[in-house]
């Protein structure tokens, strides 16, 4: 656009204004171009007129991914930015000047603070994972890096593209004519049971024999001589459907259709209805949060080989025991003939627990039928469609409180979307944390499971807990808005003190949240930054900032888990080998067990090696999950090493008290000392209850571009209590990773389904957006709480892999504060508005209630 700056910035030539992404063709705003010719762009009437013409020219297509309203308003906002930049900063009023600029992200920076306990090294020594170098260099071996076995073939699942119907015909003729085609397998070829679920869970078929409950449900398996050809075969199979019905895809749909699984949980504390009726203030509302794909770098993969002993299995699984059981069930082979081994996973996050059972069972059925090695490696789109994800949740609540904001009564109805089959149900378990860090004398908690035509949901990092934590914080925000108070103050006056009782009836004795809260408010300079943000928001109309401080209480359950550990010392050179029941999936469990063994036996780390986890040396071990796997396996290694020391120490004393390790071990061997030890770490309780609580506090600050909905997380401060860290480097990494995982859940990752077929449309990175490098806070500061411990654990550490994820909702609540300022500016700031997850760019923009009639110079 050419301007005559000597004549009040008059448009002298016809500009070019073209938009992409509005509809299927490029939108050439020719009428807007014509309107601008000869006009002075410094004249407010020119801006208003151009916007009116442009609005008529923008006709967005309907889209499953964003609303036409947002598309049009975004385009007009971008035009406004362009217009202001053409006018020039010197001609704009101060409040709108920043509208022309995009958000600028500074160079990322980070701080990590933790105590060093050198007296206990190598335990508690900060160090990278022992496998870090081979992983960073690409030398680490995953299942798909394993060389092919002689005669090995490759499999791919054939899945339905329609939900809530019945399977018609399967036509493999075209697929079997393709180059490299080997065979296909259907439900009729299964020699054992056609189910990948284990009792007492409801039956879930490996290959559908009739009903298709969700789009993406497997109906068959095809096998070819290469993986690429197997994928091509799967796409060539012709599938027909009968008895098609509209799919139920959301919790709201399920409630409307009364589509529920028969699981209800109710917990009552005090007299909630009476307290609610007598409360000086009452509020009610709803909030919801969606699903989430695990997005591990390695998709589901399994390799099965029929042998004379039975079947050898390499599976990318968090649950070796379940893989052994489900393969035995599907093939009819006894469990003792199924040997499962796992070296490492390329990410798990809960998705390779129950989620790994279906591909493993299908792969084993094919290997048994063909009597050949079969490898099944799922492509990303099929993995996202066929395999379970995080459960969505919805809450309906009523809350009573006093003039200061103290909670008096909470009536809380939680709905959990379990998909088409209840493979896991969390409405019972999450009640122990539904109150987060807040005391309320009267509660009524009701949990209900919903049945939808989506894949059965499964464990996903901090399953269920992340939702109820968010809902409690949402309630606090609602209370604060109603009283026109700072949410930070409402949070503080409601916090638990030791001796108070939680909703689950647990009396707290390890609560340190108030001290953590005060420490973080001071170290993060919260009050000062809040004042600076208030000034910034008053001075800027189209850029807004927000800050939120969020606490968390996470409950660790160890009583449900058991892990078998084996430690052996070789007499030839004194080297130590360990196998344990946990799965190394990036959390550094192998490194931590080595540190425990080195510290307890008194040998260098270099003399210790951890072998692959397998079903022979670590039988009957639990799933790796719940953030307690490293802790429990370390306790198992500690006990093994303690018992070995009991046998070794008498010989050590006979040799003068300080012999060389190699000589000591060789002497022990010559004297017949058993240099190996096995131990199962398991601490069952008469009544299942949490082992201990983990507390943390996070402060997050954001900046929002009101015109587009874009945002930048400018800073996050995290104070987290992990007790006496076994390895601060690894634990800080887990804190950072969990927090960023949660940022994806709350801000960018959205599952969208076709309303007609039920098919997942966000089945790749083009539409599904996990967090990337620039979604990380520009300034990320992590502090592990100093002078902490854990009296409930032998190792004295606390769980770390999942709890920090809960506090990532602080970014969404900070955005809520920024959006609130934008709503205040347009005269709609009085009412409380819910900001549900994920708070995508579109959601943030639409929540700001942007009106082009407010675009000024």
Automatic annotation (TrEMBL):
Protein name: LOW QUALITY PROTEIN: xanthine dehydrogenase-like
Gene that encodes it: LOC109467339
InterPro entries: Ald_Oxase/Xan_DH_a/b, Ald_Oxase/Xan_DH_a/b_sf, Ald_Oxase/xanthine_DH-like, AldOxase/xan_DH_MoCoBD1, AldOxase/xan_DH_MoCoBD2, AldOxase/xan_DH_Mopterin-bd_sf, CO_DH_flav_C, CO_DH_flav_C_dom_sf
Species whose genome carries this gene: Branchiostoma belcheri
Domain CO dehydrogenase flavoprotein C-terminal residues, every copy: 1-86
Record's keyword terms, sorted: 2Fe-2S, Iron, Iron-sulfur, Metal-binding, Oxidoreductase
Family (UniProt): Belongs to the xanthine dehydrogenase family.
Domain (Aldehyde oxidase/xanthine dehydrogenase a/b hammerhead): residue spans on this chain: 137-245
Gene Ontology MF term list: 2 iron, 2 sulfur cluster binding; iron ion binding; oxidoreductase activity
Cofactor(s) essential for the protein: [2Fe-2S] cluster; FAD; Mo-molybdopterin
Pfam families: Ald_Xan_dh_C (PF01315), CO_deh_flav_C (PF03450), MoCoBD_1 (PF02738), MoCoBD_2 (PF20256)
């Amino acid at each position: 656009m050419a301007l005559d700056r000597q004549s009040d910035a008059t448009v002298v030539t016809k500009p070019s204004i073209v938009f992409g992404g509005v509809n299927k063709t490029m939108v050439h705003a020719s009428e807007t171009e014509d309107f601008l010719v000869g006009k002075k762009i410094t004249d407010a009437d020119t801006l208003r007129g151009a916007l009116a013409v442009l609005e008529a020219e923008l006709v967005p297509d309907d889209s499953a991914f964003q609303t036409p309203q947002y598309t049009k308003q975004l385009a007009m906002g971008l035009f406004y930015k362009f217009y202001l930049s053409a006018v020039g900063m010197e001609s704009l009023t101060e409040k709108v000047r920043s509208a022309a600029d995009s958000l600028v992200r500074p160079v990322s920076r980070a701080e990590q603070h933790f105590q060093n306990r050198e007296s206990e090294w190598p335990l508690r020594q900060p160090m990278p994972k022992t496998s870090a170098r081979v992983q960073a260099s690409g030398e680490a071996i995953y299942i798909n890096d394993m060389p092919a076995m002689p005669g090995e073939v490759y499999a791919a699942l054939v899945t339905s593209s329609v939900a809530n119907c019945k399977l018609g015909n399967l036509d493999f003729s075209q697929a079997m004519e393709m180059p490299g085609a080997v065979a296909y397998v259907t439900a009729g070829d299964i020699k054992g049971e056609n189910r990948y679920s284990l009792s007492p869970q409801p039956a879930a078929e490996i290959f559908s024999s009739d009903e298709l409950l969700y789009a993406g449900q497997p109906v068959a398996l095809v096998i070819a001589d290469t993986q690429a050809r197997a994928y091509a075969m799967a796409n060539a199979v012709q599938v027909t459907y009968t008895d098609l019905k509209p799919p139920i895809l959301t919790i709201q749909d399920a409630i409307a259709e009364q589509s529920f699984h028969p699981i209800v949980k109710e917990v009552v504390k005090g007299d909630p209805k009476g307290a609610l009726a007598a409360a000086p203030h009452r509020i009610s509302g709803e909030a919801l949060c969606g699903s989430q794909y695990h997005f591990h770098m390695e998709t589901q993969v399994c390799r099965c080989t029929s042998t004379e002993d039975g079947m050898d299995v390499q599976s990318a699984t968090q649950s070796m025991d379940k893989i052994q059981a489900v393969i035995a069930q599907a093939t009819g082979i006894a469990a003792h003939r199924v040997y499962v081994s796992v070296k490492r996973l390329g990410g798990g996050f809960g998705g390779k627990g129950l989620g790994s059972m279906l591909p493993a069972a299908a792969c084993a059925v094919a290997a048994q039928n063909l009597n050949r090695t079969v490898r099944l490696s799922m492509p990303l789109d099929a993995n996202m469609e066929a395999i379970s994800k995080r459960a969505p949740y919805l809450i309906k609540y009523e809350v009573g409180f006093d003039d200061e904001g103290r909670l008096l009564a909470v009536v809380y109805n939680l709905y959990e979307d379990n998909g088409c089959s209840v493979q896991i149900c969390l409405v019972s378990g999450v009640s122990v944390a539904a109150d987060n860090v807040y005391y309320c004398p009267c509660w009524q908690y009701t949990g209900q499971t919903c049945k939808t035509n989506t894949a059965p949901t499964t464990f996903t990092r901090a399953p269920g807990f992340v939702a109820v934590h968010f809902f409690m914080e949402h309630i606090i925000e609602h209370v604060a808005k109603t009283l026109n108070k700072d949410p930070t103050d409402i949070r503080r006056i409601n916090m638990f003190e030791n001796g108070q009782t939680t909703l689950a009836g647990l009396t707290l004795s390890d609560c340190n949240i108030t001290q953590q809260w005060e420490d973080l408010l001071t170290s993060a300079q919260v009050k000062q930054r809040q004042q600076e943000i208030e000034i910034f928001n008053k001075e800027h109309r189209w850029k807004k900032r927000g800050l939120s401080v969020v606490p968390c209480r996470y409950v660790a359950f160890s009583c449900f888990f058991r892990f078998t550990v084996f430690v052996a010392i070789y007499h030839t050179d004194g080297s130590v080998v360990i196998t344990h029941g946990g799965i190394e999936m990036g959390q550094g469990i192998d490194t931590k067990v080595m540190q425990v063994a080195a510290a307890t036996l008194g040998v260098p780390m270099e003399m210790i090696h951890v072998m692959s986890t397998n079903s022979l040396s670590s039988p009957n071990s639990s799933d790796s999950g719940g953030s307690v796997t490293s802790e429990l396996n370390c306790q198992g290694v500690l006990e093994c090493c303690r018992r070995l020391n009991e046998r070794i120490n008498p010989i050590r004393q006979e040799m003068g008290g300080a012999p060389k390790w190699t000589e000591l071990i060789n002497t022990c061997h010559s004297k017949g000392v058993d240099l190996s030890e096995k131990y199962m770490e398991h601490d069952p309780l008469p009544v299942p209850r949490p082992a201990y609580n983990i507390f943390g506090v996070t402060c997050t600050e954001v900046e929002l571009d009101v015109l587009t909905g874009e945002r930048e997380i400018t800073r996050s401060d995290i104070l987290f209590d992990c007790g006496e860290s076994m390895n601060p480097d690894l634990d800080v990494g887990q804190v950072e990773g969990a927090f960023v995982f949660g940022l994806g859940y709350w801000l960018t990752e959205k599952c969208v389904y076709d309303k007609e077929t039920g098919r997942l449309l966000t089945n790749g990175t083009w539409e599904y957006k996990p967090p990337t490098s620039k979604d990380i806070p520009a300034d990320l500061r992590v502090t592990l709480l100093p002078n902490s411990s854990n009296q409930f654990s032998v190792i004295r550490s606390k769980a770390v892999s999942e709890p920090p994820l809960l506090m990532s909702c602080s970014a969404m609540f900070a955005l809520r504060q920024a959006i609130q300022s934008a709503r205040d500016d347009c005269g709609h700031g009085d009412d409380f508005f819910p900001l549900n997850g994920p708070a995508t760019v579109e959601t943030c923009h639409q929540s700001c209630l942007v009106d082009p009639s407010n675009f000024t110079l």
